[in-house]
Structures are given as C-alpha cells and as structure tokens.
Amino acid sequence: MRGHAALRDAVIAAIALVVVLAIPFLHRSPAFEDFIIRLSAMALFATSLNLLVGNTGMVSFGHGMFYGLGAYVFALTMQMTELSLPVVAIFAVLVTAVGALCVGAICVRLSTDYFAFITLAVQMLFFSVIISWQSFTGGDQGLRGGIPRREIFGFELASQLHLYQFCAVVAVLGLLALRHISASPFGQTLRMIRDNETRASFLGVVLWRARLWAFTIAGAFAGLGGVLAALFVSGAYPELADWPNSGQAIFAVMLGGIDSFLGPVLGAMILLALNDVVTRFTEYHGLVLGLVILAFALGLRRGVLDFLRLAWPGRSR
Amino acid sequence: MSGLVTRRTILAGGTASLLAAPWVARAQANTLKIGMQSIMSGPIALLGTSSRNGLMMEQDRINAAGGFLGRPIEFVIRDSKGQPQEAARVARELVNSTGCELLIDAEASSASFAVQEVVRDLGNIACIHTNSETSSLTADPKIRAPTAFRVARQGVHDAVAGSIHLAAYADAKKLNKWATCSPDYAYGRDTTAQYLQFFKQFKPDVEVITDAWPKLGQPDFTEVITKLIQAKPQALFTLLYAGDLSAFVNQGNVYALFSQMTVATPNVDYPVLAAIKNLPAGIQSATRYLETFPDTPANKEWGQAYLKRWNERPTNWSWQNTVAMQFYEAAIKKANSLDAKALAAALTGMKINTPFGVDGTITMREDHTTIGYAIGWGQTTPKEPFIVDVKAADWGKIIELETEWKKQQKYI
Amino acid sequence: MDLDALGACLTTSACVVTQTTSGLIVGMLLFLVAAGVTLIFGVLKIVNFAHGTFYMLGGYVAYTAIGITDSYAFAVLSGALAMALFGALFERVLISRVYGSNVLMQLLVCYAVVLIFDDLVKIVWGPEFHAMGMPAAFQVPPLFIAGGVVPPFYAVLIGIAALIAIVLGVGLSMTRLGKTVRAAALNPQMVSALGVNTTALFAIVFAVGGGLAGLAGALAAPVRSLSPGMGFSILIESFIVTVIGGMGSIAGALVSALLIGMVRGFGTIGFPKFTDGLIYILMIAILLLRPQGLFGRRS
Q: Which of B80, B146, B206, C5 could connect to B87 by a Cys-Cys bridge, CB 3.0–4.6 Å?
C-alpha cells in the first residue's frame, strides 16, 4: 500500500518539476523566476515547520534560527574556504541538523506552551549572538561581499535561470523527502503523539526521542531552505534568523493548511504573492496583509487547502 | 446574427488594439523609470519618506529642465521594510521586470549590502546608494562594485571631523573624563571606536571612564542614564539618533543629566529637534542637515522650498538623495548615455556644484564615494536655527586620517 | 563584563538607591503591560500577541489628548479608557471568534491586528517619531534620597503603578467581580452554568488588560518616543515577564517585572554589552527548571 502512495508522490513530484523547469523555455519572466526561487526556500522552511506543528503538535516559535543557521554556515564556509558548492551545502545542512539536535535536546521535554516560549527564547539568544559576534558574522550588516564560486556541475548559479533550475530541483526533492518521512511509520508515530501522547507512550513510543528526531529533521530541512535563501541574496543576513521570519513560516502553515502536506507550500505562495503584488501598489502593505489574514482566519477559519479538502471530501490523504 | 456580430466586433477590437499597442508602448517607453527602494514602514520610516521627498523635488526640477536625454523621469518607489532579502528581490524586480534604467538605493545597513550584491550580479545597471554610512560599502575593494556609487556621508569622515572639533573643545574646557553611550550594533560600536581612536590621537590625555551600550530602539534608557550620572564624567559622547536620541534627551532631562555633563553627539537633526520639547542648550552637535550651514542663499532656498512643500523640515537623507540625482544629471549629460559602464566612468572623479558642499561643490572619488559635503560642528540652542556657532570641518585633515584608517583596515 | 563596577555600586548607598529607582520605573511600567497579558491568559487562555498595540495606541491617544487640553491627567485617563474600550471591542469582534481554535490561529488574528494598526498609526500620526514632553508640573529637579537620585516624575509613576497593583490584587481576591474572574479562570463552563454572563465577563477582562497596557503607554509618553511599530519590543518583554512570573499570576507578573527591571538596572553596570542576553538566559533557565514560572500553577 505504501509503495503505491510513494510511487504516486514521486510521479507528482516529477511532473511538477518538469512543468516548473519547462516554463522558462516557453516564456521568460524575471519576476516569476525570482518568485519561484524565493518560494523554494520558503516552502522548505514552512513544510519543515509543519512536521513539528501539524504532524507532532509541537508549536515552535523559533524555527527561523535553523533557517538562519543554514544560511550563515553556507555563506561563511563559501567565503572562508575553497570547497565546492555541493559540499558546502551538505555541510551546512549537517551543521544545522546538529544544531537542531542540541537545541532539541534542551527543549523537547517541555510541554506545548513552554516549548513554544523556550524555542522563541533560544532563537532570540541565537539572534543576539549573531549581532554581537561581529568579527565572525558581520553583525547586523550581515555577511557582505557576496558568495563566490556559485557553480554546481557546470551550472552558473549567479545566472537567474540556473539558480531557478537549481532551486526548483532542490525544493522538489526536499519536499519529496519530507513527504516520505511524513507518510512513513515514523510520521504516523508523530501524528499519534499529536493526537494522544498518553496512548502513544503506552504503545511503547519513547515520546522525547520521537520528538527530538522530528525536531532535528525539521531543523535540517529548514537549514536547506536557508541555503537557498543565502544563494538568492548572495550572503547571509541576521533578518533570516529573526523572530518575524519564524512568524512568516507559521503564517504560511496556517494560511495554507496545517493538516495538508502541501498546505505550507500553498501558504508560502499566498504570502509571497501578496507581498509582491501589494508592494507594487501601496506602501501600506501591513494594512492590506492584516486585512487579508483576518479574512482568512475569521472567514475560512482554517488553511486554504484544509478548507478545500473539507469542501470536496473523498480524496484520500 | 448577433453571435456573428459579437465575434466580428471582438476581432475588430482585437486587431485595433494590436495595431495600437506599439504606439501605446512607445509613449510609455519614452519615460525614464528610475527605481528607488527604501524603508517606508516601521520605526525608521522617516528614512524612506524623507528620501522620497527629496527625490520628488528633483523629479520636478529635472523634468522642468527637459529630463534626462530628453526623456521625462519617473521614480518607481518600493518599500523593502529594511529586510535584506526583500531589498534584493525589489532591486531585481525594479531592474528586470519594471524596466528601471537607473537605481537609487536609499536603503540602510544590511539591506544596502544586499542591493550591492544584486547590482554586482546584474552588472549592467548604475546604482547610487544614498543612505548607507558604512565605510566598507565602498572602501573595501571586495565589496565595492563597478557600477555602484555612494552619495552619502561616511561614518569615518564624521568621526575624524568630530574628533578634531571635540578634542579642541575638550582642551579648551578641560574635559578629560569622558563617557560613551551608543547603540549596541555595528554603527554604534564601530563608529564609537573610530571616534575614540581619532580623539585619542588629538587629545592623548582623554580618559573614557565608563561606557553604555543600550539596544537600538530600546524604549527606556533610564538605567543607562543613572549609570552615567553616577560615573560622573565631565562629558558624554553618544551616537544615539532619531527616536532613541529624542527619548534619551527627554529621559535625561528627568535626571538633570544635561546640567551635570557636557553632551556631544553628531546626530541632532531636525526630526530630533522637532520631537524634543525641552532641548537643552549647549549640546555639541554636528550638522546632518541645517538650513544655515552652509550659510548660503542656495541652501536656505532649498530648505525653505522643502519645508513649504512637505510641511516638515529636510533630513540628512533628503539632501543625500537630492545630490545623488544631481550626480546622475551631470554624469548622463557627460556620457550622453544611460549605459552603466559609461555612467560609471563619468561619475568616477566627477565634481558637481551643489548647495550641500562645504565650498559649493561635492566630488565623487575614485573609490566611488563622495567627499566635500558640508560637515560642521556647533552647539544647540532651544530656538531657531537650533545649532549655532557652526564651524566647518577641515576636509584636508579628514582625508588624510581616512587614508591612514583605510591602510589600517587593509583596504588599501 | 565589569564586575568591579558592579561590586562598587552594590556597596554604595547612592548607587543602590539610584539604580533601584531606575529598575523600579522600568519594572513597574513593564508590570502594567504584563499584568494585562497574564490576566487575559489566566482567564481566557489566550496569548494576546496584540498587547503591544494597546501600549502603543495608549501612548498616541495620550499624546493627542494633551495637545487638546494640556492636562497630563486627562491624557493618561484618555489613553487608559480608550484602550479599555478598544480591548473590549477587540475581544467581542475578533477574539471571540477564535476561542476554540488552534493557538496559532489566535496568533494570526492578533498579528493581523498589529499589522493593521501599525499602518493606521502611520496614516493618522505620520511615520516620524513623536514625544509628548514633560508636563510642566513635573519639570522640577530630582530629589536626593540617601545620596541617590530620585526624580519626582518617576516617583509618582511608581506610586501609581504600585497603587494599581494593590487594587488589582485586592480586587481579584476580595470583590465579587474579582472572585468571578478567578473562578472563570479555573472553570469557565461552571461559572457560565451558574448564570454569570461570561460573554460580558470576558469582554471586561480584555478591557482591563487593554486598559492597563494603554495606561502604561500613556504614563510613559512624556519620556519615551512614539513611533509606529513601537509595541513590538514591549510585547516581547512582557512575554518574558509573564513566562518567568507564571502565566495567569498577577503576583508573578509583579515580581518578575521588578526582577527584570533590577537585572537591567544593575546588569547595565556589570554587563553593559550583554544585558539582553542575561534576560534571555534567565527566561531559558526558568523554563528548564520551573516551567510554570515563579508563581504559576503546574497544570
């Protein structure tokens, strides 16, 4: 049974990738390509957060710290060493995973409300370290001077088209991996913990260990998103690790649908598209965004994808 | 029958608009779009809005004189909210999608560095940074970009000018014990360090007995103020600015701080003056923008025109953006082109006449940054013109020490 | 780190008095804001992420009010009452719709309000920062107590905040309304079943919470800068206070707000570049050692 679903997921991913890669050959639109590049980073970030929020019931307010950590490790290593891009990218994700493991070890034992606040506190601490350790991180000015040697297998990532292709591939593969994890027995365990942790532990699940794994995996994928973000800005900036950025991921999850795998991706799409369109017409984007969010939160009462699936039931998960 | 008519009408309409399209497109294509991005929201929104005000006045003046290369100019203005990734996106959109042929980057801090990378990657657009005061943007050869320039004051210039003035003042009034209070981020830390470095060069017996590092945007400075009062310095140097400086002055007045020590800051400008109701007299301050310095009719005229149009006084950011447009105007005339490389060649080393230069001119140096703009130090008074006894800084000395500092930083 | 300076300060009565006063003023204003957060959470189980907006609007309303009547007392009352009204409206119109929802949905609603009002403030009062200026009555030199500096304006503010703390404490424990509120915090269904109009009760709780934050904003307006978006830093600080003190405990909010104030007051002498970091570490320590906070109840 799982084999069928896994095959279906892979086919959908392949089709999506082919479509996305084909678009520039039909029509070049720099704004669209920038949109997809940023969406790739944010989709990974938001979907990884939903592994915690939607799947395990762990509300993390500090997820941005891993997004930022991935970006900084990647940009710093590229600037300070001569290693090639794929090596550095993998290194950045691994370091972020280790970081998530350490932070998770401290945090996961706390119950929901406190877990949310302690992740926020750790993120704020991390952010203040970035700002203070100016000699290493560039402080509030960020890592300047650009990322050198942006090539991978002959693709020059300084070119928008190649960066677009690279980000699309990484995002689709990353999302597919997250989908696989979410649909696996481990993912089911997480959902069981979310629904009734007492029953889960009676069934022999070691709660803190499962949560720690979820936290680490989520952190690692957030770090991967951070790598893409670093490539887009050709550097790393503290704003990537700041609380409002964690908030962006939370909003993407809530707007898109906490109970649907692709909900966060859709939510990210909505947020980015809103941002891009609204800023073209008015400087009062906060007002517009706030009103839109209220309409979603009070009108639909759930994320868009969740709403659609409830309105048109009958499709299996 | 009706269906055929409808279809024919649609066909006719469609053909007509297809034929019209080139005309419509051509009329729009004549306008020269200039992209401008800045912080238009949040606590520092004044940075973006006052920059825009200056630019709008320039747009009118330039268009009245025929525009650039005979084409009317039009600013396309975007708010990046000060977020670097948004600043990068906006810069790319302005150039790639909106068809802007020139860029004015009015961002501050990290966002301006993000825009610098976009300009470097694109390679084919001229960009003038107008609000970033961090030296490394142009001083560091690794960060400098071939088609990006800076028309703004620099932290290191202010530091030299300030130290010279303060050292002389401190010598005259025998103020040897100093304290510092600056916001705890790159600008605050680096610029304070620069000031102190040059200060000690001119007055070796100066002693910093205590320092305070409040957070940028911190609402309450009381614990910092009381710490400073108890340390009993003779003088206080602070790099707090805008709302923070206003709050610090108001909260300092509660503790009568200003009667216990001389206060020196480069950052008293019109917005701070407008917000503070009881401005203490005798604060040593630099001028960021002052209608009476340089004391020329041209400067006064501009300041009055700005006040009349926007019902608020100009800021430092207002004049910097204005001068940027004056540089573009002169460079485009000289190069007779909008090509980024041609403009870059024209801008490098260019000197223009402008009311904001200390001798009526400002020069764009080979390292893509401006010198010769008006820096003066004077002291505050509670009524117009608010800063009096303004003495102009010595640019020769500024450049000499700046060069030494650049060697220290291994920029040259 | 400057532990010598810290030691020197702690052994001088002048320094202790002065820094304690500054810690008190920071702490008491923070308490007023945090009390609202903790009250709203205690009774309604809602984390009010829009609380900073109440503080901000309280300050702006006071700023406008004093421009009209030149009376600081009127300005403070206006700020507090306007925010009490706004709090009740906010609860009735928006919060009441998301009571049962996921906490993140509540966060979303609150955040939307923050965004909307940050821009509205910018539209109405402009993007530049404002300051009210010290009312004439308080433009007097500071007092000297035990060698330490105590400004009369701050002494009055501390007094007002202390009075409010007492009223809140007494009100909650001794008055009928207070007991109903505490009962509703423990068991809202039962309270409703007993015939209490919980709808009105919840609106009142939000009105009190909002009014407290508005009062803090108005009281601080003479000396702090007003700008759009100023609510954010107060919000974060009040959350830290509430977490350390215990969500739902007014006494906890008072103690931890004062604690934070003192950490700032003496931390700035001993740890000038790391004062914020100290506070985050304190928050993390409490969450690890005693997650329910100093005065909170283990749920």
A: B80
**Which positions in chain B have a beta carbon within 8 angstroms of at least one beta carbon in chain C?**
40-43, 45-46, 49, 184, 210-213, 215, 217-220, 222-227, 229-230, 242-244, 246-247, 250-251, 253-256, 271, 274-278, 312
Largest Cα–Cα distance of chain A, in whole Å? 57
Q: What is the pLDDT of residues B47-70, one digit of tens each?
A: 999 999 999 999 999 999 999 999
B364 by Cβ neighbours in 10 Å (0-12 / 13-18 / 19+) ranks as buried
Evaluate whether B31-153+300-371 and B156-287+375-408 have a shared fold.
yes
Query: Which residue among B90, B120, B134 sits closest to A146, beta carbon to beta carbon?
Result: B120
* Matching CATH number, B156-287+375-408, of 3.40.50.1820, 3.20.20.70, 3.40.710.10, 3.40.50.2300: 3.40.50.2300
Q: Which ipTM score applies to this complex?
A: 0.87
Please tell me the pTM assigned to this model: 0.88
Give dist(CA B9, CA C18) in Å, integer.
84
Helix, strand, coil percentages, rounded to 5, for chain B: 50, 20, 35
Do residues B262 and B173 lie in contact, with contact meaning Cβ atoms separated by under 8 Å? yes
Closest CA to A250 of A110, A64, A36, A75: A64
Q: Taking residues A17-41, report their average pLDDT.
A: 93
For chain C, the helix, strand and coil percentages under 3-state DSSP, each to the nearest 5:
75, 5, 20
Rounded distance, CA C212 to CA B46, Å?
30
* Residue C299 belongs to a domain: no
* Domains of chain B, residue spans: 1-26, 31-153+300-371, 156-287+375-408
Give the tokens for residue A84: 């090639």
